[in-house]
Amino acid sequence: MSSASALLEPRTAVPAEDALERYRLDARAWLAEHAPRFSGAVRRGLPLERDVALGRAWQALKAAHGYGAITLPKRYGGGGGTELQKIVFTEEELRYDLPVAYFSISLSNPVPIFLRHAPETFRQRLGPPAIRGEHIWCQLFSEPAAGSDLAALRLRAERQGDGWVLNGQKLWTSWAQIAQWGVIVTRTDPDVPKHAGLTYFFLDMRSPGISVRPIRRLVGHPDLNEVYFDNVYVPDEQRLGEVGGGFRVAIETLMIERYGITDETASSPALEALVELARRARLNGRPALADGEVRAAIARAYVERQGLRSIQKRAMEAIAAGREPGPEGAIRKLLLGRMRQQLGALALDLMGADGIRLDPQGESSRDFAHAWLDPSVRIAGGTDEVLLNTLAERVLGLPQDHRPDKGVPFRQLES
Amino acid sequence: MDFSLSQEQQIFQDSARRMLETECRFETRGPLIAKGSFDGDRWRAIAEMGWLGMALPEEHGGFGGGAIETALLMEEIGRVLMVEPVWAIAVLTAHALLASGDERALALLPRLVAGEVLPVLAHNEADAGGVTEHVATVATPTAQGGWRISGEKTLVVGGNIADRFLVSARTSGRTGDREGISLFLVAADAAGLRRQNVRLIDNRWAAHLLLENVQVDKADVIGRVGGAIDALDEAHAYGLLAACAEAIGVMDRALWITRDYLKVRKQFGTTLSSFQALQHRMSEMLIELELSRSMLHRALSLFHAGPEIRRQALAAAKVHIGRSGKFVCGQAIQLHGGIGVTEEYVIGHYFKRMTTIEHELGHSHFHLQRLAELEQRRGTPVAPLAARNAA
Ligand SMILES: Cc1cc2nc3c(=O)[nH]c(=O)nc-3n(C[C@H](O)[C@H](O)[C@H](O)COP(=O)(O)OP(=O)(O)OC[C@H]3O[C@@H](n4cnc5c(N)ncnc54)[C@H](O)[C@@H]3O)c2cc1C
């Protein structure tokens, strides 16, 4: 993140605007032709396994048309396109209810970082199947004692011959149960301060000694897992970055999505769906849409959406002009999370009884009850509080909180 | 305004808390929930504690308590997220039966209190949204002098284990009229009655009832034909009060569980509780809780001050509690981080219970509207709703 002044810079014209618009229209037409076979009613009632299979087929089709991983290099099966094209395509794709969630982490962070740092033979072998959706990659960062404070992680990696032996536990690993590969941050040196003793690897999730246990979520999303490592061997050639340089690679991984969620609803039903709901629902015997407070809430949400779209546009312009986007991503994620909860609450009120009878087939992107009961967008990928800290420190130039563990060898912190 | 409890009330609260904390442990409640959140032995034990009749007069088998006892017990029930239908049976149904003044109903009360019968008020309908007089289910007279009932009742909490229903149906007038609603006692296995059990998001159970030409006798009418609204109002007043008290218990525990978590969870080499941003958040939660608690106390003190004033006080409490509940329980999850969104850990369940309470007997929006109307009727100028909301 650069500085607040990026926000204040005058709008620069986007030279490639026409080309981008053409790209959008092509994508829209392509999606209209293919997406219906993979979305909506087709998916209703599918067990996870079959929905994943459908997702893989969709991913393969996208890859065959250059939409599989738009910004990744062509030689590994990517689209070789720009970040803007990716944002545009994602916006269009999100109009459909497609089985893309299984790849959202895989292709956003682990696979790109792997393609940046891995030896060429591995890239050629593993890049294409990942982009075609045959392989799903997971991101093994968080641990019980290391959430917001990633550098506090404990999972040990110790030298053994030409490789490393891993012992410990990861937590909150999305889609570990269907992942073939993963990227992982480990502690290789506990005698130096916490950031300095970490090393980064990629590994085969079917390696002996790995066990994956599901974690049940409040609304029954089947994504989260705990992953245990019991003497898991990883060859040194699967190291990404220097020994002791793992923290830098981890941060680089998290920064790849320079501009996080592109979905303006944060995976909840759109504002239009809420208006539709308010049109049908009744409050005190009258249409809910006639209620002053409902109208005010909807109007506020519309205004805020304009603001968010404008922030989005500015970030896109910054990217197009080759600049790092400023704090737009953090601001947008914070506001989207809040708006999703406010509208979820209102929607639930309007839904009446349906709101507290959970549809087991529901999904947060089309079911308000799910969106309301699942506040995890405000936790995953950097909590609200951590984002606020980032804005305070990076943009406002305010000092960091007191960090008593600064400079202290990790071993002394472990207790 | 604060309530100093009498010695008996204090003892009642203490014993309820002890019993509930041992009997309603979150970690062990799975099998109970799987059985429909009901177990005959446990229910008899609840009855033996006197909880099913705490707010009923002694001549009907109760223990002579009132609104305060109801609130005390419900707050404790909220604290442990009890899943059994005490609210549905001992509050809503018992007060509807009592207020009906009907002999058959009154005769049923001692057996309800003893846990021998499980009558459940089946009043709520899909489009009611908190309006007590919204009854679209109809009862038409039969040639034999009885009645034939048809309609649908939805989200009848505890309906899954009811042995009989106290069904409201319209015997005259139109949906929404206060006159013309009657109550009928209907056996749970009556011909033409179909019940579909649903588990609510907070692991309580409810039933959806479909009544198709259910035949009842003349003697099954409870109270005056067409004159059930007063009994329903009374039941709803107790029900609202109890729901608000339960919500206070829910918020209170969610707050303190979170406080305790922040004191032990370490990140960045220190406990989360040392981050002032989080301390302030917790203080905001406390403010909301205490405001809500005061609203409950206000409603309690005005509970017998006449129907209009009571209605106003209960609506105000429900509005406030609904909003603070979303904030307090939502932030309780947020401050827990990832562990907050898991089914295995308790904190998310406080959020879920709060969400269902918000939907009981009319949500915040509904009650805010109702308040505005009550004020308008009294001639007080009302601030535009949008302005209030922005505050
Ligand atoms: C749906 C979901 C999917 C996830 N997927 C993955 C995944 O695939 N891979 C992976 O590695 N991880 C994943 N995570 C984990 C996620 O990254 C962590 O949950 C997140 O970083 C927060 O960590 P924590 O849960 O340990 O909470 P904590 O860090 O313990 O935070 C608890 C509370 O304290 C606050 N807090 C913490 N530090 C500060 C501070 N300095 N100042 C103020 N407040 C603070 C937090 O904001 C939060 O409110 C996922 C999480 C979720 C919910």
TrEMBL record, chain A:
Cofactor(s) recorded in Swiss-Prot or TrEMBL: FAD
CC per GO annotation: plasma membrane
SUPFAM superfamilies: Acyl-CoA dehydrogenase C-terminal domain-like, Acyl-CoA dehydrogenase NM domain-like
Pfam family, one: Acyl-CoA_dh_N
Residues spanning the signal sequence: none
Sequence ranges assigned to domain Acyl-CoA oxidase/dehydrogenase middle in this UniProt record: 138-232
Span of domain Acyl-CoA dehydrogenase/oxidase N-terminal: 23-134
Keyword Oxidoreductase tagged: yes
Top-level taxon of origin: Bacteria
Keyword Flavoprotein among record annotations: yes
Ranges for domain Acyl-CoA dehydrogenase/oxidase C-terminal: 244-396
Protein keywords: FAD, Flavoprotein, Oxidoreductase
A GO molecular-function annotation: oxidoreductase activity, acting on the CH-CH group of donors
Family under the similarity heading: Belongs to the acyl-CoA dehydrogenase family.
PANTHER family: ACYL-COA DEHYDROGENASE, ACYL-COA DEHYDROGENASE FADE34
Protein name: Alkylation response protein AidB-like acyl-CoA dehydrogenase
Native source species: Fulvimonas soli
UniProtKB/TrEMBL annotation, chain B:
Gene3D superfamilies named in the record: Acyl-CoA dehydrogenase/oxidase, N-terminal domain, Butyryl-CoA Dehydrogenase, subunit A, domain 2, Butyryl-CoA Dehydrogenase, subunit A, domain 3
Keywords associated with the record: FAD, Flavoprotein, Oxidoreductase
Pfam families: Acyl-CoA_dh_1, Acyl-CoA_dh_M, Acyl-CoA_dh_N
Residue ranges constituting the Acyl-CoA dehydrogenase/oxidase C-terminal domain according to the UniProt record: 241-372
Domain (Acyl-CoA dehydrogenase/oxidase N-terminal) ranges: 6-116
InterPro entries: Acyl-CoA_Oxase/DH_mid-dom (IPR006091), Acyl-CoA_Oxase/DH_mid-dom_sf (IPR046373), AcylCo_DH-like_C (IPR036250), AcylCo_DH/oxidase_C (IPR009075), AcylCoA_DH/ox_N (IPR013786), AcylCoA_DH/ox_N_sf (IPR037069), AcylCoA_DH/oxidase_NM_dom_sf (IPR009100)
Known cofactor(s): FAD
GO MF terms, alphabetically ordered: acyl-CoA dehydrogenase activity; flavin adenine dinucleotide binding
Taxonomic superkingdom: Bacteria
Residues in Acyl-CoA oxidase/dehydrogenase middle domain copies: 125-213
Family: Belongs to the acyl-CoA dehydrogenase family.
Protein name: Alkylation response protein AidB-like acyl-CoA dehydrogenase
Natural source organism: Fulvimonas soli
